[in-house]
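Hi Y.,

Following your request, here is the sequence exactly as I used it, all 239 residues.
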Amino acid sequence: MKKKQELISKLKAFQDILKYTFNDIELLKTACTHSSYAHENKESSIVSNERLEFLGDSVLSLIVSEYIFKNYPKLPEGELTKIRASVVCEASLAQCTKRIGVGKYLLLGKGEELTGGRERISILSDAFEAILAAIYLDGGMDEARRWVLEQLEDTIKAAVAGNIFKDYKTELQELIQKNGEEKIKYEIIDVSGPDHNKNFYVKVMHNGRTIGKGSGRSKKEAEQNAARCALESINGLNN
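Below is the corresponding structure, written out as tokens. Let me know if you'd prefer a different format.
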């Protein structure tokens, strides 16, 4: 009982940092619950944030798309796509969550805790999307939009100015399409390590041929690294 009260107190303090007060604080608890913690506490029927992350990913994409569509009417579709991709990428979201200290409020399994999960880019970016989904479910789209723009408006402006993380997947796709060729394909070729410390290995293919490989602590990170490998190979051939 004491542990539960301490958790609720901690979550209430987290609300002040998020600048949003939940009607149903259980939504925030779920948003902060990593799958490793849920797995270690199966008997307590604790739910991880994976489903919220799924929803938050779509809500985030819509909010960012709407914002850049309305505020940058002269930008063509290709530029809008590139800006959105750089804003919603793992590195961008993780940087935001680190800035507001999300990591210290996450519920992690023992293994994830010991291997630096509170600073892991994939966990932090997933938590951002899960928190957004929790706010959306609790307060509606207007509150979700307000929160996202409060966190990411400066990031969006930096992306428009070209001062943000490189999105290698979009850059590779644009390079391929420039030559009028079909889309590229990403495939997971291997996954290693325990649940709390997985490594993903991905290859990127074009016309049935592997043009790059990469690894990462998440599928998204591995795909970015595979795309970067492909770009380095293509640029090397062109020099």
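The longest strand covers residues 185-192.

Thanks again,
Q.
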